Amino acid sequence: MTISRTICLGFIAVIAVGALLLILPFSTSDGSWTSPIAALFMATSAVCVTGLSVIPDLGNDLSFWGQLILALLAQIGGLGYMTMTTFLMLLIGRKFDLQQRFAIQESFDRPFLQGSQNLMRSILATTLIFEMTGMFLMLIVFAQDFGFQKGLWFAIFHSISAFNNAGFGLLPDNFMQYQSSWIINFTVTGLIIFGGIGYQVIIEIYFWLLNKLQRNPKKFAFSLNFKVVISTTIVLLVVGTVTIFLAELNNENTLLTFSLKDKFLAAWFQSVTTRTAGFNTINIGQMTIEGLFLVMILMFIGASPSGTGGGVKTTTLRIISGCTRSVLRGDEEVILYQRRVPPPLILKAVAVIFGSALTVFLATITISLIESKISALPILFEVISAFGTVGLSMGNTVNAASLSYVFSPLSQLIIIAVMYTGRVGVILLMAAIVGDPRPSFIQYPEENLLVG
């Protein structure tokens, strides 16, 4: 039982338990049994914080208990199986052995071998602070529209869903009715951004602020991970907002009839949510081709390492772009912010991009062969959304809930596999299947070949 297998099987175990609970009659509003494939799909979508659904209206079709199960599964999936396991061990007072510390390191993709218990406490405290803040802000709006009790539950559910980048919504039209609300737009996007940039970055921001408040004369040194994540996230948000605004400006089905303020709000909201959250304030299925392709690119890139989102990650994008820049300049090393990127990290980034693209390609081709009546573009969009754990869809309903519920059971199983692969990561999943690499003492001779 390797570390990668422990993590992968942990996600499967949580999905299985969630699916069994969603099958039971108390999970539905009419007391009916949920089909096994639908329950498995919803549990996978929640644990993998995707947001795709085979249930058109979660607010009406699921009971309170079904909605609560979805929220809990999204919370567990966002925090990660290893984080929750670590938290439970802290509660019962168990100490970490070396293998458990390595498992935490592998789960976060960073060498957190020192102070693992403090790290877990910081993560849980950070999650609670952000979700409570989001809940109170959204309660201001929801309490006026739905009453205090229902508004409170809506605020709790959507705060959990937003911070964990799950994208599940209880409103029939998602957030389309709140496309003009400053509170809803900036609360939801703020939760998505902070959940997606990763706990390491949030903790560094906290210590930087603490250093400023204490007026420490020693300059605070940000890590390379922080600089890459923050700069890349800002660029993607700005470029995404401007591009979506220009692409949809004259589209009568999306932004044309909006006021100038609402146009920028909608463009900003879509730019943020396409990076793995899956909420929408406009009809995604009615966007222009240019806008849809931009959304697919943003979904494929996704969030940042150790965050609650999916995708190939912002750091992978920067490493690959850094490789391209080095080749064009004739450099033999990849330099980011005056730091040299290790060759093994470059190889890992290339493997992530290739494995992710191959997964999307194979899933799209397979589903296209099965669903011959659906055109390729919506299928590609759905697959990228599943792999990036986003949850957006070009579905044929007004709220663009999901195409998944019109897919055949076989196609739904493929989407389930894609969501799972996107959440645990291509590299981690392959390591779990193949096993740990064996050390080799053989060095082969070097030889050039033509490239490009």
Describe, in plain words, how this protein is organized in 3D.
The chain has 452 residues and is mostly helical. The chain has one domain. It is built from 18 helices and 2 strands. A two-stranded antiparallel sheet has the order 1-2. A hairpin with a 2-residue loop joins β1 and β2 (339-340). α2 packs parallel to α17, α7 (116-146) packs antiparallel against α9 (182-197) and α15 (343-370) packs antiparallel against α17 (409-424). The longest helix is centred in the N-terminal third of the chain and has 31 residues, at 116-146. It is globular.
Which SSEs are present, and which pair or pack?
Blueprint: H1 3-23, H2 36-47, H3 58-61, H4 64-79, H5 81-91, H6 98-108, H7 116-146, H8 148-163, H9 182-197, H10 199-213, H11 224-248, H12 260-273, H13 289-301, H14 314-329, E1 335-336, E2 339-340, H15 343-370, H16 376-387, H17 409-424, H18 426-434
Antiparallel strand pairs: 1-2
Helix pairs in contact: 1-2, 1-4, 1-6, 1-18, 2-4, 2-17, 4-5, 4-8, 5-7, 7-8, 7-9, 8-9, 9-12, 11-12, 11-13, 13-16, 14-15, 15-16, 15-17, 16-17
